[in-house]
Amino acid sequence: MTTTHTTYRDAIREALREALRDDERVFLMGEDVGRYGGCFAVSLGLLEEFGPERIRDTPLSESAFVGAGIGAALAGMRPIVEIMTVNFSLLALDQILNNAATLLHMSGGQLGVPLVIRMTTGAGRQLAAQHSHSLEGWYAHIPGLRIIAPATLPDARGMLRPALECPDPVLMFEHGSLYNAAGDLAEPAEPVDIDTAAIRRSGGDVSLITYGGTLPTTLTAVERLAADSIQADVIDLRTLRPLDEPTILDSVRRTHHAVVVDEGWRSGSLSAEVTARITEHAFYDLDAPVERVCTAEVPMPYAKHLEDAALPQADDVVAAARRAVG
User: Looking at the whole model, is its pTM more than 0.85?
Assistant: First the structure.
């Protein structure tokens, strides 16, 4: 086995290339995915390699091209639909919620929708209130969808294949701050289990539960906590629906303290769901209340110092973990 130095962006591109090469039913469609190479350069070069039948630039209508992707999936294709940023997915919410998520149920199991929808999520890049949403927790509320959030290079490289093999529609949330993240990636890449969370660090004092763009923040906090002799379990949820409840509960039962780190807003958030499940199933294992670190409940500011103040930071995670362990 060899290793290749690469980036999160390039890992996703290689996953796309592999999918297109290995299965003629797979095609990519979305705004600027072809000639421009993708708004975040993820699909750069794929048009030249696979041609316009497989790499399809679409009109600026999320409802139309997500609907076209649903139709293609119903017809036996394996479409990958790219929505530029998560806020634009709201323009296709009717297609995602009322069609993709429900057709299998409403057809009595006759019409599956094996569709993958990729989109960029998250803040931290001074895109203000227009393009800084973290709405994956909203989508995790919807039965019939599978929600995944790769936070590492191996997951960026390996999650697409099992997503394409999934009989249900899969929404893949790629945090914009991760695209330039670089590191060594083992080759050949292995598919990633999209049913289970991953334990990124092991420790016996507190469980830090996170996903996506807040994983690097949480890992930074872990280093600071270790200097104070506080050892943390770091759980990367990876799949937000369905949640890997056993991994979460097993960790909390070992550490007896929990902190949930979520870039979503606190009210009605994924962090609220994780906290509820911990208190429902591991309440008597807790030695302190569950702590949450979330984004401030405001539209995301543009000014860098205000954006940083609104987002979960390593100092916030450290403070929450210290409160939890007393």
Answer: yes
